[in-house]
Design goal:
This protein has about 325 residues and is of the alpha+beta class. The chain is about 20% helix and about 40% strand. The strands form 3 sheets. Strands 1, 4, 5, 6, 7, 8 and 9 form a 7-stranded mixed beta sheet that branches. A 6-stranded antiparallel β-barrel has the order 10-11-14-13-12-15. Strands 2-3 form a two-stranded antiparallel ribbon.
Length: about 325
Amino acid sequence: MKKLLVTILTLGLATPALAERNLKRRVELRNINSRVFNAPAGGSFDFGFALNAMMAVELGSSDDFFNLVSFDIEDLGMSADGISLVIPPMDAFGNEVPQCILDRKQITMTGNVTSFELSNSTSVSIGYSPSGDSGFGIGGSFKMEKAKLFMDLGAYHSSDFVTYGPVGIATGAHEAKTQTTRIDLSFSNITLSPEFFKTSELSEVTQKAARKALATIKEQVDANENLPWESVVIKVAEPKITIQAGSFDGLKKDDQLVVENIYHQWEGEPCKSKYRGTSAGTTAVIQITDVRGTEADAIVVERVRDGVFVGDRVRVHQLVN
């Protein structure tokens, strides 16, 4: 009995525990549109700039999405091969693998602000709504009592590099009553800068609205069976295989991934015409041995057929705790 117990404990220590966790999806964040609010005497406030900066920060701290723009290049852990390729590598069928395959993002996000307002008890003080621009109820300064924001956020995916289809649509809305806050505004040829945004309650409202929208997008994307998490092989130097996913994507050492040989084909010029690439089937199971910011090294632990090549698709097999 003691021998059996020791054997069980030994196996428990040697076998990685499988985890119920998701890897982050790489996102290309495009512009979230917002009207520039024109203040009296020629001043203005570019709320769109502030909102896009806020969304980049939220993606940088998200447990579900990963945006390269949210990080400094020094922090990403990229090798030279992960940034640019001087000589295009070949796939399993002798076709060149262009850079767009290696830089591909799973999701593109963009959106639109419907309205944002800071208001007091008597009138809207700054912002705009679908019905038109808001005015200024108390001249150059006012006591703000409420802030609200309404925004639409869309997630899109392209299977052919040319056309994009929606995979998630969300509305982010948040309204907050605040403790009375006095804000002084000067409009004599002065533009309301992002610093004004940071000192207002609208900053917090924007953050919460963005988080609500991202949470809804995550639920919709996860429910889409045609959009599993995937990455790509970017370098092969057997026995080491490097993939375009790392710790920022949620990968950990000993995670196992499936590699599929991909036949890369285009209707015309690569990356600028419709992509007609097809899978030739699973070629190997690989296990992560070293993880960096946006890249990871792996070795083959199960070979279905010979050959892992740059440009091959990588998908989840087993994740560990």
